[in-house]
Amino acid sequence: MTSTLEHEPALSLESLENRQIDPTRPLLEVDRLVMHYKIKAGEVSAVEDVSFTVHQGEAVGLVGESGCGKTSIALSLLRLLPSNATYEQGEIRLNGENLLELSPEEMRQRRWKDIAMVFQGAMNSWNPVYRVGDQIREALDTHYRGAMTYAEQRAHMEKLFQAVGLPPAMLDRYPHEFSGGMRQRAVIAMALSCSPELIIADEPTTALDVIVQDQILKELKRIQAELGMSIIYISHDIAVIAEVTDSLGVMYAGKLVEYGPTADVFARPRHPYAYLLLRSTPSITGPRRQLAPLEGEPPDLLHPPTGCRFHPRCPFATERCATDVPPLEDIGGGHKVACWHHDRVPALEGALQR
Amino acid sequence: MVRFLVGRVAQMAVLFVVFLSIVWLMLQAMPGDISDTLVGNPDIPLATRFELRERLGLDQPLLNQYVTYITNFFRGEMGVSFSRFPQDVSTVLWQALPRTLVLFLSATLLAFWLGFKTGKLIAWRRGAIAEKSLIVSGVFLQTVFYPWFAIVMLWLFGFFLGWFPIGRFIDSNVWQGSPYDSNDIFFAMILSALVAVVLYTVARLVIKRIANNLVTQDRLTTIAGVITVGALVGFWYLRPEWPYVFDIARHTVLPVVTLALVAFGATMLLTRGSMLETLGEDYILTARAKGVPDRVIRDRHAARNALLPVTTSLVLALSFVIGGGIVTETIFSWPGMGLIFLQAINVSDIPLAVGALSITGVLALVGHLVADILYAVLDPRIRIA
Amino acid sequence: MTTVDDQNVHPAELGVPASGASARELTGGRGLAHTPLWRIRLRLLRRSLGITWGLFRQNRMGMFGLALIALFAVMAISHPILMATVWDPAIYDPVDGYDAVMTEFTVVENGALTDEASQIELNQARIELNPMVTVGQVVTIPTQPAPPTFEGEHWHILGTDVHGRDIMSQLLFSTRAAFFLGAVAAITTVLIATSIGAVAAYFGGFVDNALMRFADLILLMPLLPVLILLSAMFSMNMVILGIMIGVLSGFGGVAIVLKSQALAIKVKAFIDAAKVAGGSDWHVIFRHIVPNVLPLSFLFMMFGVTEAIAIESTLSFFGLLNVDMTWGLMIQSARDNGYLLSGTSYWWLLFPAGLAVSFLCFAFFLVGRGMDEVINPRLRAR
Fold first, then answer.
1. Is B277's Cβ below 8 Å from some Cβ in A?
2. How high is the ipTM of this complex?
3. What is the pTM of this model?
4. CB-CB contact of A231 with A199 (8 Å)
């Protein structure tokens, strides 16, 4: 870790801005990942056969109802799952290296330096008894011990704060002196501190009010573009995701049911669940349409439905859906759907607009 | 911070006056008055009695009596002890105070330090056999009938195993013909221990600055601790007072350990609970995501926050330690305030008992204040507000 | 003020998590409007107790504590029964009974005594028995304290004390006293603390401030010394002591904790709903806030029992209480008669009483902890 560092003068945002990115090179590949939680009552199938790829500089979104396994995936990527979670199968490759095969110590060194994370509740992401600056410094100390002087660290952190639109003097403040939006900005600054190649943003704006939400999203998007980072957005709020991502994945009950370019998925959702989810959100700019209700509850993952996990709630379900698991198939242009009846979904559009 | 301090001290002063008033009210509520205790014998002529009442100021209006009582206390005049007649209450208590303070302080600190460390470790590694057995023994220590526990400890270590003397403060055989006064020696011991504590604290601060690595930091701190204790013992060993110092020290060990053990159980259980709560917090997950090593997460993030409720409980533990102190002093015949208090109660020496209770009240208040300040130092959210 | 409740029966009011309690189940299929409110309440209560019990049962230590308490309860009940049937009051009365047990001693040389309980020095034996006794002879002498005897007409399962009284009888008799005192103290504590906490949280402002400053003051009073002084000045029996302990701890720490709990309840929507519907202050406090604080109150009741028994035993250990017989007094009489360091050779003097206090406190504490884990899920084992 330190050997490469000796050649680099220091960690700086300027050097990152010139980072060469190749949009066709895969950065993170999640390959047929299966993850279960073992509890007293049995095994919870939280992530089931999920595959997707994040390219360099790409912004990927994952949406779904709460409890569908979004956060489980996020934590899986960093191997931060609770001790009762097991990886049953699959690989998580970062730059070709399988993270699941690393030793705990090697994994620890990858965290934040290669993959950083912006957590759901920025309020609680900060340890209340330490200054915000010191908590960012802790990340630098952990991954660049001895490589930066105190003053260099300080200068770096001040630049980070400026980059996220916070006055550098706030570094010396305690978390409780920050407003909600400011804390989230500071969290983003901390995520950027070790200039990771990938940031996972798990519900980055959920707890914030709408205006702040918008500001934070714009900030994230700008920084991501400037610094050439990849980012995975995780949210239940489809409008948030649509605005900032290049690719979009829709999750249902631990499975990825649809994945493709955001515009494509948004305009032509082909999985019935994705369709109903997208249509359950009103659009101000688009044409007026009736909101389709999504009936029923997400399944109990302790005893997931056989076949397609959506079939008990699906308007198109046939017998086949209850027995066979539909594969995630490419239907053209990188748009993938896991549904036996994806060609019948457009018909729903007409039915609802009547 | 200064304002916080001043405010807190003022508040405590008011509380103390209220406390004194309540003690006074309790005295008033007692059937009869002190003159009954002194000249309760019907053979004593009534005139003597009235004279005494006049001399004691008991014929004054209640308000005057009250004011005199309060002002006298602050002037350090707590009257004359009945049972140790020529001696002032304040003289008797003043001699006993250091012994009680040493018992309280060393037991509290020992219990707190050990309890916090163990509680932290068992919360971090849940499910181990060590955790289960420590919890059970912690609960047992917390609920054991303390006087009985002290008796068993005294019997086991003092009588059966003979490792420590059976109670008391000094062994009169050792002190026979000694050129020193035990109180002076004891005072010098306290002073040297304080110097050692200050030096150790300074060393810790320096180490914190120098060592950038938590593991070396721990190692250096341990070394500093060993050196400090060694230096303290060595210093006394080379001095002529050594046999007397040693005698006092070995009389101190058993009561301190006994009192500390019981408080240890409570602190350990509380730390464990508080650690478990803290470990579920989001900032622990953030720290793990940052790649911070487990040990650092445990010590700097989880334990540091778990310390806050434990500090608050110091206040609650205080009342326990004071009560336990009385029992300890009685069973170990340790001539501190608790023993004097109980002896005074047994012979109805009301001035001495009230004096001891009031001083205990002062101790409780100061303990409160210290815990408050400690909390404010530890929690930045309080410091500003 | 039933309007609110008729329309808005919230399970949380009874301390139940609002988990899908279907109206049908609660009303027995008769429809919400036709079922008396108390019946719904009762069913909710039963259901909530069921849930709590289910969770509590998983806590092994808590169940162990409960079993211990049951054992002590059996002990407490058995004393009057035994006295009325098997035990002769003249011998087994915990206070006035007397029995000189004949014990065998081996006579040993003067100064060669190794075990006081089974040996006697030659000189002593000659004084007590007859001058013809020789070393090595086994003699029987009436003794008190006597070790356990299972011979003759009167058994003494745990031996007799320094005055020849049966220890077992004292132990059982004291159990009843301990339960009684614990109950009085704990109920007083909880009644006071819950009302104070709810009132302070509900009204806030001056009332809150005054009550909480007062609680601080009480918290500051060193409980044991104050009680020692009080018991020296006034003659205290179990009832007065129980109430005194209850008042002192009820106005202090417990009130502060319960107030913060009540504060958390106060901001819930159903409190506003009750107020909007015209509920008076006292109605809201005692019908909506207090029931929600109750689970926590019960928790403190358990800890309160532990504390009260410990304090009572300590005070009687110092001989400051006006009581017939308690565990603390049993230890005190052993200590006052020179058996402080008797340890295992006179184990029946110190150990039964000491262990009884410890185990009863242990039991209530374990139950308290078990309840704590039910109320506070984070503490539960994964």
1. no
2. 0.85
3. 0.82
4. yes
